[in-house]
């Protein structure tokens, strides 16, 4: 028996990296999955491999949110879970970052998640309740030089999570945030970030001194999507190898 048997889940940014790990684990745990992304080639390949349904989905667009949710409802008749996983990271110190780049990060990471919460309220309510999992970051808990736009979006996502948890509890909808640390994904391979960050010192600051595999985050996300987390809402779950214990970060 799977942790997510009978659940229908929509996962954004699901074509690769952590999102793809969520797709695979949710399927393994018995969920029916629709996932979106703007990476069509990778998204279609993952859909063919796994049997999950792929939809092109720019999370900045309210119309594309309606299409993604409509796809899930059309295929499966209901929606129980939203994982707001889509996100981008751009390295740049405040003095050097163009305002347009700041806007793009906030539009994808923050506005995109807000639109997702807004769009799924009715279908989750119709299903008798459900779970929204917002993927934030440790940068939503503590800032870092060169990541002002990313940190701003991820800090703000915590606020949306807590407000939504209060607003939506009466509909049986739980809303929580997950805060990954150093995860082996394409996002952390950004060349500008790699030039500026001392990876060895970063790892030494952890209690568990290694980068995590994406599925290690997915297990926490699946727990929050499941009924086993029925008393969890408005909460923040770190998956960071102990990075934020104060051990030198």
What does this structure look like?
This protein is of the alpha/beta class. The protein has one domain (8-244): Rossmann fold. The protein has eight helices and seven strands, in the order βαβαβαβαβαβαααβ. It has helices at residues 17-28, 40-50, 62-76, 99-126, 148-168, 191-196, 199-204, 214-225, and strands at 8-11, 32-37, 53-56, 81-84, 130-135, 173-180, 236-239. The chain has a seven-stranded parallel β-sheet, with helices on both faces. Strand 5 (130-135), helix 5 and strand 6 (173-180) form a beta-alpha-beta unit. Helix 3 packs parallel to helix 4 (99-126) and helix 4 (99-126) packs parallel to helix 5 (148-168). The termini are far apart. This is 3-alpha-(Or 20-beta)-hydroxysteroid dehydrogenase. Keywords: NAD, Oxidoreductase.
What brief labels describe this structure?
single chain; 249 residues; alpha/beta; 7 strands; NAD
Task: Chart the SSEs and their pairings.
Layout: E1 8-11, H1 17-28, E2 32-37, H2 40-50, E3 53-56, H3 62-76, E4 81-84, H4 99-126, E5 130-135, H5 148-168, E6 173-180, H6 191-196, H7 199-204, H8 214-225, E7 236-239
Parallel strand pairs: 1-2, 1-4, 2-3, 4-5, 5-6, 6-7
Helix pairs in contact: 1-8, 3-4, 4-5
């Amino acid at each position: 028996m799977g942790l997510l048997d009978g659940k229908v889940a929509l996962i954004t940014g699901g074509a690769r990296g952590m999102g793809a790990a969520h797709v695979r684990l949710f399927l393994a745990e018995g969920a029916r999955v629709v996932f979106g992304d703007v990476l069509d080639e990778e998204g279609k390949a993952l859909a063919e491999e796994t049997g999950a349904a792929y939809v092109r989905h720019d999370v900045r667009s309210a119309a594309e949110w309606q299409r993604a949710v409509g796809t899930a409802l059309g295929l499966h008749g209901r929606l129980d879970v939203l994982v707001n996983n889509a996100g981008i990271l751009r390295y740049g110190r405040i003095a050097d970052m163009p305002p347009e780049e700041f806007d793009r990060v906030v539009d994808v990471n923050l506005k995109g998640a807000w639109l997702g919460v807004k769009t799924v309220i009715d279908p989750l309510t119709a299903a008798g309740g459900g779970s929204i999992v917002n993927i934030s970051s440790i940068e939503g808990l503590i800032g870092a030089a060169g990541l002002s736009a990313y940190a701003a979006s991820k800090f703000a996502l915590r606020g949306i999570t807590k407000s939504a948890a209060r607003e939506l509890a009466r509909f049986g909808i739980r809303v929580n945030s997950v805060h990954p640390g150093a995860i082996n994904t394409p996002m952390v391979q950004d060349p500008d970030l790699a030039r500026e960050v001392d990876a060895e010192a970063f790892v030494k600051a952890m209690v568990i001194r290694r980068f995590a595999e994406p599925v290690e985050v997915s297990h926490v996300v699946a727990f929050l999507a499941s009924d086993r987390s029925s008393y969890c809402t408005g909460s923040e779950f770190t998956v960071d190898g102990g990075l934020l214990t104060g051990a030198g970060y």
